[in-house]
Amino acid sequence: MQKSIAVLLTGALILSSCGSFRDSRVNPRNWFGRSDEVRREVEAETTNPLIPIDDKVSLTRKEKEDDTRVLLDSVTELRVDPTPTGAIIHATGLPTRQGAFDVILRPNEDADEGVLELEFLVNYPEFATVQGSEFSRSVRAAYSVSNFDLRDIRLIRVVSTNNARETRRR
């Protein structure tokens, strides 16, 4: 009788300690919380973005292809899923019209230390398309981050033209 009570109490104690692991910083599912929308200040450009800054081409370097992607209109969702090798950042956004393609999350090198800032970029068709419903315009992109890069990141921010979404490490 005493042995079964001792086993029962030990089992209950071990099981109750598992609940604290769920909320701990050790659990990878708790590294980043839900995303929040933040205001973005847009600065006026003093230079013409259509004129290339570096137009030098050498014999050993190929000529760079023009990247015609532009910032997406708005980011609607941001999610960070942990993986064994790091994390995958999923973003959903709304372009201004249907037909957006070549969607990418590109890191911004000018971001502050401890911040991973990703620009949500898309290409639009050269021909006119209708605006359509939000569901038909919705686009998604993902970006993979290794554990090595993730150790210094405290904030992940996805930037678009009209807004930005960010999530912080807990």
Automatic annotation (TrEMBL):
UniProt source species: Tritonibacter litoralis
Taxonomy of the source species: Bacteria, Pseudomonadati, Pseudomonadota, Alphaproteobacteria, Rhodobacterales
Name of the protein in question: Lipoprotein
Top-rank taxon: Bacteria
